Structure formats: C-alpha cells, structure tokens
C-alpha cells in the first residue's frame, strides 16, 4: 500500500500499517520530511512512533519517497492523508492538497486501485473526488474512492492507529471492493474486537466532523459554565465532578480551562459551519459559532486575569508561560491556546518567557519574538506571574516550595485546573484558576 502525505497522520499510519505486517511506501512532497523519515527520524514528537518507524524500516516493509510513480507502481491500495487546513480568509476547508493527490496519482495508475481517504474533509468531497478520478483514469484502469476517517489523538497516535476504538468506512453505493480490502488491511484490529462500521461515503465524512463538533461543544459547554462560576463564586471543577458522575454526561472533556486548539478541532468546526452554509443548512450549526467564541474568550480571560494581577498594566512585567503546544504529549502548536496567550501578553507589553518540553522549535517558528528559555527553571527565574497554559506532567508535578525560591513573586494562574491548590497555597503562592474563586 501507499500512504500519501506523511505528516502527523500519514507518517503514523504508514509506520503502523507496516507494523501490522503490510508492505508500505510513504509519499510526501516535502523532501526534507521524507529524508528524515527515511533515516529513521520522526520529524515531530509522538511517543512510541520512533521505535515503530525504525523497526519497520529495518524489516524492509517500510519505505519513503517523493516520487508518485513509485507509489503508483508499487501499490494498488492507497491512503490519502494530506492536510486540509482552513482556507485563508474563509471558514471553509482548503481542498487544494487533497485534489492535487488525485490529479497527480490517478493518471499514473494502471489496473484496479482503491484510494482510502483519511483526511478530514467537508461532506461531499469523496463523491467529487470520485468524479475527478474517473475523469483522469486511463482506459482499462479503475479507481475507487472510499473514505476511512482518522480519529487518532496526538500523543496516543500509535495506540489509536494499531488498536483504534472504531474503524469507519464509507463506500460508494453499488459495486465496491473497498470493504473487502479494508477488512484485509485492518484484519488485526478487527480480529481483536475493534468495531468495523461500514456506511455510505457521505455519512462517513459526517461522522468525523460530527465527532469533533461534539467534543468541541462539550469543552465549550463547561467553559461557558466556568464563566458563570467566575461571576458567582462557584467552583467549576467541583461542578464538573458532580455532573460527570451522571453516566449520560461523563467526566471526560469537562476539564474547564484555556480551551481547545490544535490542527483539528478549530478548523474542523469552522469547515463544518461553512459546508452547512453552502448546503443551505447554516441554521443547523450556528451554535458552533458560539462554541468557537466561548473557546476564544477563555484565552482573553487569562490575559485579563494576568493584567489584573499586574495592577491593570502589563507593560514591562515579567510573565512566564509554561507550555506552548496545544496539548501535552505533542509538539504541535497549530492554533495553540498557550502560544496565543503568550503572544497576546507580549503584544500587550509584558516581557514573556516561554518553556515547553517539546514544542520550542515549532513555537519559535510561529512566534519568534518571545523569549524561549532552555529549562523550566530558567523560564521561571525572576517571574512576577506564572501562567500554566499546557498541562504537561512536568508542570503539574512542579514543587511549589522549590520554584517559589526562583520566582520574583509567587503568583500563578492555573489555566488548565490541574495543580493541587492547597499545596501551592501552603507554599505561600497566590494561585488563580479559571472558573474558581480560590
Ligand atoms: P500535516 O500538515 O502534519 O501533514 C500533511 C502532509 O501532507 C504534509 O507533510 C505535507 O507536506 C503533505 N502534502 C501536502 N500536499 C501533498 C501532496 N500533494 N502530495 C503528498 N503530500 C502532500 O497534517 P496532519 O495533522 O497529518 O493532518 C492531515 C489530515 O488528517 C487533515 O485533514 C487532518 O484534519 C486529519 N487528521 C489529523 C489528525 C491529527 O491528530 N493530526 C487526526 C485526525 C485527522
């Protein structure tokens, strides 16, 4: 098989498919990325992936190339995992890369091929790509487009790919070989009990965006309640524990704090709204606009809290932001709440020092004007206010007595509601958190 697009999704998929015993070639247009993967180095942080990559390169089952012709000759099953970012100046998804794969690959194919789309796309894309593929396929060549959306979580990507909690497959109506092939590809997880759900292509595309819209809504729900707690003196974490005991609600994704970010949820809910608009069903998803707005307001709230702790003016104050990645166990800074807060504080005149265990290089590329410290201790030196913005274990486990000796003033904002409040207060810290009056 080939895996086209070897970013977070594709590199993981390629290595894990080889781990399942398949012969895999990964293809990308980024030659630096391909060289890195080919030499056994994962160009991003993903626990466990380097081991899977090296093991399978050594076994000879896994290879990487920038040459589409190799993919066309080598494989008759192709996975498409290129990016679908937010289009500039619009909420809609940019499908340029997805279309480019079909345009570049299909004319090179001979015989019977199935392309499984894994990228997150607006509903209707697979049908459009089928038309495009049909128009480009040579005589005697058949190309079937199926959709197999990906649900992996960065930080758990290997486990989520090898033993996913479900496999969703969208196939065209009528004649289709995709299900039979997918059953073969995923024989191991299916044999291990992973639910395998076959449906039409449109529904499969909707499953992915609906899952992300639901998760985003759940996070923004608790963050909206958090705003009310802030006005009334309630405690959002106790509230979340209490409602979370209701199994219809559940405690997961009710962590009030700085909200969601990353390369998926924000752009996916926006693309879902844009598509609903195109379909004349915009009213169905207007609530997602609120979900997005609540989420962005949390970032403003942290900046406002920090400003309040500096007597209303951030100018010249030394603020340390712990975290730059959009979530722990990842180096991904795409639409990161942590980096957004750090940037806003800096633009408001604060002297901002940032530390993240893995995302420093990516953060530096996006926001080169911030001070990046070499260690958490260096970042905290002389700080007047500390903002915990990404809940890495390293930050959760900080000893408040020890770090109390490094900072200038013992003031911390727990932007993720993960610190043991009493322990910090006992060590003489003024600890502030979102949705709680402490
Ligand atoms: P990414 O930016 O890390 O990777 C995309 C890759 O595609 C890049 O390496 C890029 O060079 C390559 N590419 C672009 N055009 C190409 C072309 N014409 N031919 C070959 N390669 C090309 O993005 P990602 O995070 O891996 O996301 C990819 C898709 O998967 C998106 O649709 C995303 O929404 C979806 N997704 C991502 C995750 C995740 O956790 N990252 C999870 C589920 C779904």
Helix and strand layout, with pairings?
Elements: E1 2-4, H1 8-19, E2 24-27, H2 31-38, H3 49-59, E3 62-65, H4 68-74, E4 77-80, H5 96-105, E5 112-117, H6 125-136, E6 142-147, H7 157-162, E7 167-171, H8 178-185, H9 187-191, E8 196-200, H10 201-232, H11 236-244, H12 265-278, H13 286-308, E9 318-322, H14 337-347, E10 351-355, H15 360-366, E11 371-372, H16 376-380, E12 385-388, H17 393-396, H18 400-404, E13 411-414, H19 421-426, E14 430-433
Parallel strand pairs: 1-2, 1-4, 2-3, 4-5, 5-6, 7-8, 9-10, 9-12, 10-11, 12-13, 13-14
Helix pairs in contact: 1-3, 10-12, 10-13, 12-13, 13-14
The structure holds nicotinamide-adenine-dinucleotide.
């Amino acid at each position: 098989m080939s895996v086209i697009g070897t970013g977070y999704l594709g590199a993981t998929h390629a290595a894990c498919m080889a781990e399942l015993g398949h012969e895999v070639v990964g293809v990308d247009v980024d030659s630096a990325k391909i060289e890195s993967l080919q030499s056994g180095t994962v160009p991003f942080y993903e626990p466990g992936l380097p081991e899977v990559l090296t093991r399978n390169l050594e076994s000879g089952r896994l290879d990487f190339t920038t040459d589409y012709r190799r993919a066309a000759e080598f494989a008759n099953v192709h996975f498409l995992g290129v990016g679908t970012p937010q289009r500039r100046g619009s909420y809609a998804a940019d499908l340029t890369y997805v279309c480019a794969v079909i345009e570049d690959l299909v004319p090179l194919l001979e015989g019977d091929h199935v392309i499984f789309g894994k990228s997150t796309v607006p509903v209707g894309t697979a049908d459009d790509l089928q038309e495009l593929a049909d128009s480009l396929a040579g005589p005697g060549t058949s190309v079937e487009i199926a959709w197999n959306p990906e649900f992996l979580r960065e930080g758990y990507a290997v486990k989520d790919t090898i033993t996913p909690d479900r496999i969703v497959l969208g196939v065209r109506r009528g004649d289709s070989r995709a299900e039979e092939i997918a059953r073969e590809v995923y024989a191991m997880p299916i044999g291990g009990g992973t639910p395998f759900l076959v449906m039409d292509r449109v529904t499969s595309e909707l499953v992915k965006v609906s899952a992300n819209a639901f998760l985003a809504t759940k996070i923004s729900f608790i963050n909206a309640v958090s705003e009310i707690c802030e006005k009334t003196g309630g405690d959002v974490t106790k509230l979340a524990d209490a409602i979370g005991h209701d199994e219809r609600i559940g405690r997961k994704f009710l962590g009030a704090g700085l909200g969601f970010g990353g390369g998926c949820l924000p752009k996916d809910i926006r693309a879902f709204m844009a598509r609903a608009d195109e379909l004349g069903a915009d009213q169905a998803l207007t609530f997602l606009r609120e979900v997005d707005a609540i989420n962005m307001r949390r970032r403003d709230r942290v900046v406002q809290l920090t400003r309040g702790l500096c007597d209303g003016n951030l100018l010249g104050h030394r603020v340390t932001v712990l975290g730059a990645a959009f979530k722990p166990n990842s180096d991904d800074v795409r639409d990161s709440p942590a980096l957004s807060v750090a940037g806003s504080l800096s633009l408001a005149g604060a002297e901002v020092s940032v530390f993240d265990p893995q995302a420093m290089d990516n953060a530096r590329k996006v926001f080169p004007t911030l001070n990046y410290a070499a260690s958490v201790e260096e970042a905290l030196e002389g700080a007047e206010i500390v903002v915990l913005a990404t809940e890495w274990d390293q930050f959760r486990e900080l000893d408040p007595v020890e770090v109390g000796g490094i900072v200038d003033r013992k003031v911390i904002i727990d932007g993720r509601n993960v610190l043991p409040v009493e322990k910090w207060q006992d060590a003489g810290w003024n600890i502030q958190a979102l949705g709680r009056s402490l």
